Amino acid sequence: MDDTKATVLSILADLTGEDVSSNMDVNLFDEGILDSMGSVQLLLELQNQLGIEVPVSEFQRSEWDTPAKIVAKVENLQ
After folding, report:
1. What is the C-alpha to C-alpha distance for residues 35 and 30, in angstroms, rounded to an integer?
2. How many domains is the chain built from?
3. Which among 65, 74, 20 has a CA at the least distance from the CA of 47?
4. Does residue 59 carry a pLDDT above 80?
5. CATH no. for residue 68?
6. pLDDT tens digits, 18-58
7. Quick check: 7 and 67 in contact, CB under 8 A?
8. What range defines the domain where residue 44 resides?
């Protein structure tokens, strides 16, 4: 597992208390794993740990709703 993916999964686990590494396509919002407050915390942690800046105004929930999409977005922004 690459560093970015491992870091994203670690952040998600810390924020949600759930290990989603076995299901990278689970919809975090539909399953109640992540909510809007969690999204803000996720963006702050991505900024702190990976230097990724995503203004909340540019956050499109549909682009960040699965672990796989989050990893892809982060990799594109690095």
Report:
1. 9
2. 1
3. 74
4. yes
5. 1.10.1200.10
6. 999 999 999 999 999 999 899 999 999 999 999 998 877 88
7. no
8. 1-77
